[in-house]
Amino acid sequence: MTLNLNLPPELEHELFTEASQLNLPLTEYVLRILTARQVSENLPKTGAELVAYWQREGVINSRPDIIDSQTYARKLRVEAET
Superkingdom of this entry's organism (predicted)? Predict the structure, then answer.
């Protein structure tokens, strides 16, 4: 679907600046904003819903190279402290 919008110049500049910072075309950035709106309206309400959401989004098991997450977290904490 094609949609033409007449945006106020200030809003257009703000959106263009944000898109540029993410190295995205303006159209893709606006599409991401509109998609995020749907997600924010349907936020998980329980722990189980949150885990299911993370699984759908590919966050869980996204780092197969990390065998022991607690050891990895400890290592990151030590690196951050030094």
Answer: Bacteria
With beta carbons less than 8 A apart as the criterion, state whether 32 and 24 touch.
Answer: yes
Q: b vs e for 4-41, b when ≥16 Cβ sit within 10 Å of the residue's Cβ?
A: eeeeeeeeeeeeeeebeeeeeeeeebbeeeeeeeeeee
- Report how far Cα 78 is from the mean position of its chain's Cα atoms: 27
Q: Domain residues of the chain, as ranges? A: 9-81
The radius of gyration of the chain's CA atoms, rounded to the nearest angstrom, is: 19
What's the mean pLDDT in 14-23? Answer: 95
Confidence band, pLDDT 50/70/90 cuts, at residue 57: confident
